[in-house]
Amino acid sequence: MGSVDTGAAAATVTVGGRPLTLDEVVDVARRGAPVRIDPASSEAMRAARAAVDELASGARAVYGVSTGFGALASMNIGVGEREALQLALVRSHAAGSGPEVEDEVVRALMLLRMQTFTTARTGVRFEIAERYVAMLNHGLTPTVHEYGSLGCSGDLAPLAHCALAALGEGTVRTRDGRVLESSRALAEVGLEPLRPAAKEGLALINGTDGMLGMLSLAIADLRSLFRHADIATAMSVEALLGTDRVFAPELHAVRPHPGQRDSAANLAALLAGSAIMDSHRGEECTVVQDAYSLRCAPQVAGAARATLAHAVSVADIELGSAVDNPVVLDDGRVESNGNFHGAPVGYVLDFLAIAVADMASMSERRTDRLLDPGRSHGLPAFLAGSPGIDSGLMIAQYTQAAIVSELKRLAAPASVDSIPSSAMQEDHVSMGWSAGRKLLKAVDGLTRVVAIETMTAARALEMRHPLTPSPATARVLAALRETVRGVGPDRWLSPDIDAAVDLVRAGALLRAAESVVGALR
């Protein structure tokens, strides 16, 4: 589960006084960037805390301060029991089950919850925010489980596991991968357990930070992955003796979706200077139109980019929001609200899963075409060195097909489901956490599908020798060949596929292409 890069960490991220950026979330979650709180946030936090303390000592019924929770909201809690109420809430809600969630997701969740604390809308003490800073900077990641959040009243169980660890209970995973009791891990870095004051237990668990964290990470991956998909597409078009005329800017100006124009421009740039493309431009070429998986690639990639742009717009709003219930307003009032509902994030998580599945489906179709001697325009069956004796990359396409089939199942939206909870008080939930979990799996699947297409197209380009590919695709091919061997007798394919996946995930092939054509769009 230790997925956080603790090597060359990014610059310190300052939280408070402004929205976080998507890049900052990724820097902290994935790259281990240190965190600090803007000192100016402390005064506003203390003022909000004073408003909560006043309510906590009075008789007025305020949800989560002087009452129970959920369906127990009508039960009054005596002044002397209100702090115990908060600790009981955290303990009872830390009810997750199943496999551990990735460290980077938990770190993103903690950062985003701490960002909400610094807005002074939650009424927590400054010490609570400081505890999350310390845990992030010391690499102490609470154990959070796959199942437990319905995405309404926030990501309750995942956030409760984080809160429990911050208070000195539950377990954490250390930077070096050990799983320790939280109290021991905190002691090792010189921290004492905390005890939540009035409202703080509720504020620690009542946010959409898990699903927003997963959206932030998925956006970062897809921004790169969609450009990698253009690279794989260009290599396939080239290897299949397709045409690049359909990528001309004047064609995309008549249907001017921005993402479509960007993808087409990428493809044209990547194919420029290709001797393979030049070999079939003459009048003797009888292929009038390529198959849809080649010809319509910018249209599909453009639609995926538009979906991603919408997701970014939602994420940007969420990153500047304070999600809690009740919330402390500027005039000191503490009011109940429904901002914890995860629908805005859940919808775009599901929408992205649809785009990911379709991108992967088109990629798999190009791979299958490369391997089929009836449609590959002269390439050997399955790109085998000795077809018949060797099966070449036949089963790599099977792997793609299996992943694409899974991605189609993952594209079924989670956010259309709702299971009532808390004795029908919470009678409609978003399932946004589930949408986030399946999107992360889908992003991993698309990464593997694009890597296999790239690996397949690279072998096909080599088989067009003595014709040479474009300078850009040749550079990608060379980068791939540093770890993935070319055509030869059949061998164990899984290590080749894994190596190609690692190159895509690390952005190595994108950097290779951009070293020739400049930044892709």
TrEMBL record:
Keyword match Repressor: no
Pathway it works in: Amino-acid degradation; L-histidine degradation into L-glutamate; N-formimidoyl-L-glutamate from L-histidine: step 1/3
Coiled-coil blocks: none
Major localization class: cytoplasm
Keywords: Histidine metabolism, Lyase
Subcellular localization: Cytoplasm
Pfam families: Lyase_aromatic (PF00221)
Keyword Hydrolase attached: no
Matches recorded under Gene3D superfamilies: Fumarase/aspartase (Central domain) (1.20.200.10), Fumarase/aspartase (N-terminal domain) (1.10.275.10)
Molecular function per GO: histidine ammonia-lyase activity
Tree of life domain: Bacteria
Record-listed E.C. numbers: 4.3.1.3
Reaction(s) catalysed by this chain's protein: L-histidine = trans-urocanate + NH4(+)
InterPro entries (alphabetical): Aromatic_Lyase, Fumarase/histidase_N, HutH, L-Aspartase-like, Phe/His_NH3-lyase_AS
Family the entry assigns: Belongs to the PAL/histidase family.
Stated name of the protein: Histidine ammonia-lyase
Gene for this chain: hutH
